[in-house]
Amino acid sequence: MFNWNDIRVFLTVAEEGSSLAAASIIGMNHTTVARRIDALEHALNLELFERTNRGYNLTAQGLVLLDVAKTMRASAASVLTTAEQLARDDDGVIRFAGNAEAMQRFGVKLTSKFKEKNPQISFDLLIDVAWDKNQSPLESGKADLVLRPIDEISGDTLIAKKLARFPLGVYCSKAYHQKYGAPRSLDEAQGRKFVIYSDEVARVMKAVDWLNHQLDAADILYQVNAVTSMAAALQSGAGLGLLPCVTGDATPDLVSCFRHEELQHTLWLVASKESYTRPAVRKFMAFAGEHFKSGNRAGA
């Protein structure tokens, strides 16, 4: 009989392509990862991977098993999510997560406004630092609702409400502006040094990916993976960088350089199907939609 943990290892190796990469994600030694794959192949009497100098490639048998294993992962996550939600009352605590910037600008004020009318409903506010949806607190069952500043929501296990579209802009510090001047277009910014967002952010935000591809590698100073880190980098005078305008305009010592029609992003409020069965969660999602529809885009 195979071990479920070995299926988890199999999935990670299949998705990452190597035992070393999988080990860093799972938190195992890469030799242990290799042993677990060997054990799974022995238990199933299958050859799941072709080992090469470049890593692990799925065999035909491995490809078939991959789809089944993904279903198992989703089912296991659903069991955990449902169990945790059954342990709470309908009008109990809503665990509400989002990245630091989204929670600061929108999440905290949104829950405060909601509680003025619904004092019986409590919240646990969580900071979600992951951009990979497979690592987020919603999919792992650690949250009931998540604020997501990404372009598209996928997955048939999710209930999503689009709250608003927001502009982004390129910013610099006042000191940078005084020394070099602020470019007023992308053409004027050619040859300037930029701080950019990492690939994990670019994968879920088209505006970030678009801007990253407009820049020469020689003009990139370094990467960050959070809006708060970008704001701090720009305040230090490092160079130019992209921020949500609601953040850039409110951050001391920053100057707006330019905007572009490609620089837009969407804010979503997302629940799992299990969470959405709770009246308190449905009520909060409806409130959030009406709150933003009425023009409260700063979360006030």
TrEMBL record:
<keyword id="KW-0238">DNA-binding</keyword>
<dbReference type="InterPro" id="IPR005119">
    <property type="entry name" value="LysR_subst-bd"/>
</dbReference>
<keyword id="KW-0804">Transcription</keyword>
<keyword id="KW-0805">Transcription regulation</keyword>
<dbReference type="InterPro" id="IPR036390">
    <property type="entry name" value="WH_DNA-bd_sf"/>
</dbReference>
<dbReference type="GO" id="GO:0003700">
    <property type="term" value="F:DNA-binding transcription factor activity"/>
</dbReference>
<protein>
    <submittedName>
        <fullName>DNA-binding transcriptional LysR family regulator</fullName>
    </submittedName>
</protein>
<feature type="domain" description="HTH lysR-type">
    <location>
        <begin position="2"/>
        <end position="59"/>
    </location>
</feature>
<dbReference type="GO" id="GO:0000976">
    <property type="term" value="F:transcription cis-regulatory region binding"/>
</dbReference>
<dbReference type="Pfam" id="PF03466">
    <property type="entry name" value="LysR_substrate"/>
</dbReference>
<comment type="similarity">
    <text>Belongs to the LysR transcriptional regulatory family.</text>
</comment>
<dbReference type="Pfam" id="PF00126">
    <property type="entry name" value="HTH_1"/>
</dbReference>
<dbReference type="InterPro" id="IPR000847">
    <property type="entry name" value="LysR_HTH_N"/>
</dbReference>
<dbReference type="InterPro" id="IPR036388">
    <property type="entry name" value="WH-like_DNA-bd_sf"/>
</dbReference>
